[in-house]
Write a structure and sequence with these properties.
Length: 194
């Protein structure tokens, strides 16, 4: 299946839903460059000596944090190249993109995050602590983005495709996304919620 070289696929969703893993597979399949604001956010949190929840809380009063994270989108929309963008807000900043939301059960998300050795700024003592912080971070981000931009991340009708990843492999999810991108381009009706 051929994807146009100029398309941008924006991936957002629940913490621990597999956004990074799915994005990497999409990059391999399309040859597109990967842009991850999650990685940028974790690096910034580490630089500030904070965990990601603390940094999100600080961002409520420090607009420089969001400006630094969101600034990468200023020119991305004008770039003629295709991208896979793993970001909480890319769907909003790149309205012409194919917008994907990945959702997952919070218990599964906590297990995924706890077992991910790359998430140094998201270490938790227990699964219960992980669940509480995941839910708090989601609430903090959603409230901040709604207040700051008028962007309702909780409204799943803002997205072209919503995929539940709880019991799906990243490879399966990536394949569903590529099919949906093709279907949308060809005008073929498809279920937006999978």
């Amino acid at each position: 299946m051929q994807i146009p070289s100029s398309i941008k696929i924006t991936i957002t969703g629940d913490l621990g839903s597999g956004k990074s893993a799915v994005s990497r597979i999409l990059c391999e399949k399309t040859g597109f460059e990967y842009v991850s604001t999650g990685r940028i956010q974790r690096q910034l949190a580490q630089e500030l000596g904070l965990d990601t929840l603390e940094m999100n809380r600080r961002a409520d009063t420090d607009p420089g944090i969001d400006q630094r994270i969101d600034g990468i989108f200023t020119d991305l929309g004008k770039d003629p190249n295709g991208y896979i963008v793993d970001s909480r807000m890319a769907w909003f900043f790149l309205p012409g993109s194919f917008k994907v939301y990945l959702q997952t059960d919070v218990v599964v998300a906590a297990e995924r995050i706890i077992n991910d050795p790359h998430r140094k700024s998201e270490e938790y003592a227990t699964k219960e602590e992980a669940i509480a912080k995941i839910l708090a971070r989601k609430q903090s981000e959603n409230a901040r983005f709604l207040a700051k931009y008028g962007a309702d991340c909780a409204n799943l009708h803002n997205f072209d495709l919503v995929v539940d990843t709880t019991h799906r492999s990243p490879e399966h999810v990536a394949a569903l996304i590529l099919k949906a991108v093709s279907w949308k381009r060809e005008g073929v009706p498809f279920a937006r919620f999978m």
